[in-house]
Amino acid sequence: MTIHHTKGIVLRTVKYGETSVIVTIYTELFGIQSYLVNGVRSSSKKGSGKANMFQPAAILDMQVYHNELKNLQRIKEFRWAFIYQHIFFDVVKNAAALFMVELLQKTLKQPESNPDLYHFIEDAFLHLDEARGQAIANFPLFFALHLATIYGFRLNDDYTENTPYLDLQEGAFTAEHPVHPHFLGMPYSYITSQLLKVMQPQELNEIPLNQETRRILLQGYQTFYALHVPDFGILKTLPVLQEVLS
């Protein structure tokens, strides 16, 4: 079987047997994949150290076996592709990272390669790790909006004073108050427009938001995803993130 070299971002790890794990990883080469990894949970220090490498949001450099016909693949070798300075230890950054991971779990369904999406996600985690000040708390908002753009159900940034309502069902700003409840009015529509204009994550420092505003925006964006992604449900990490940001 051919061995492939790919990077990947860990999304979920489930214990399997005494010493193994099944890991869901979003890979650069093959999209979302599940891997059986043996012997990383042994009681020895060597084993437990390896298990740490499969924390959600970890970015790994891997040699993998790949068989299109199998649902469960295997990893030949793995190491850190990047070692975070803060995400695994900083409470706020970790809550933001876990929110981002859950959003990816709920939206990445097909095992297909999408290098642009992979690089956007990897870049986002690296920027979150380096983020300072307001940018940390604003990061989940930025990520949710820009991820949707790559998926192809973006919000059209056509906000004006004459179109002050953000219709989450249609994904557009409108002049008329929508007849359904799935919309954001002022000032939340305007702030969303500002967030959509952010090209570099450090620009998030220039958008000062309070806790209540972030709460309403995050709830709105969750609704937006639920309207556009089948079986999306609700984000379990959202209440935790809001508590940490309070």
UniProtKB/TrEMBL annotation:
- Entry keyword annotation includes DNA damage: yes
Name the keywords, alphabetized: DNA damage, DNA recombination, DNA repair
Q: What's an example Gene Ontology biological process for this entry? A: double-strand break repair
* One Pfam family in the UniProt entry: RecO_C
Gene Ontology cellular component terms for the protein in this record: bacterial nucleoid
Its domain of life reads Bacteria
Domain DNA replication/recombination mediator RecO N-terminal intervals: 1-80
Q: What family is it from?
A: Belongs to the RecO family.
Role summary: Involved in DNA repair and RecF pathway recombination.
State the name under which the record lists this protein.
Answer: DNA repair protein RecO
Q: Per UniProt, what is the name of the gene that codes for the protein in this document?
A: recO
